[in-house]
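Forum > Structural Biology > Help requests

Title: Can anyone predict the 3D structure of DUF1232 domain-containing protein?

Hi all, first post here. I have the sequence for DUF1232 domain-containing protein but no way to get a structure on my laptop. I'd be grateful if someone could post the structure tokens.
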Amino acid sequence: MLNRMKQEARRLKSQLMTLYLCAKDPRVPAGVRLFALLVAAYAFSPIDLIPDFIPVLGYLDDLILVPLGIMLVLRWIPKHVLEDNRRRAEELKNRPTNWITGALFILVWIFLAFWFFRWLLRFF
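Reply #1:
Sure, ran it for you. Structure tokens for DUF1232 domain-containing protein below:
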């Protein structure tokens, strides 16, 4: 069961990367590109329609809306464009991870959080 869930999570991640690449591809119709970008942004965004702290319902929107949006967009994209972007997504998946860039992003977020809390303390 756990192994199957991991496989589905990897498949979903691969589909999201393909979707993102299709959203940037000029061969995809503009309306489909916009919808693909919205689905990818919703999937990667920490903000949900139903917050995750609400039991069951919080995760239900992630389990239903994201796969449904991916399925719709993938049906609307021309097959040859979809296959090209799937190959590109596989190539990108096999690239090495840049830990230095990741660490820089984390440091920026820590700095911004620190600055925000200092700013809040002025008012209290």
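The chain has one domain: 2-97. The chain has a mean pLDDT of 85.
Shout if anything looks off.
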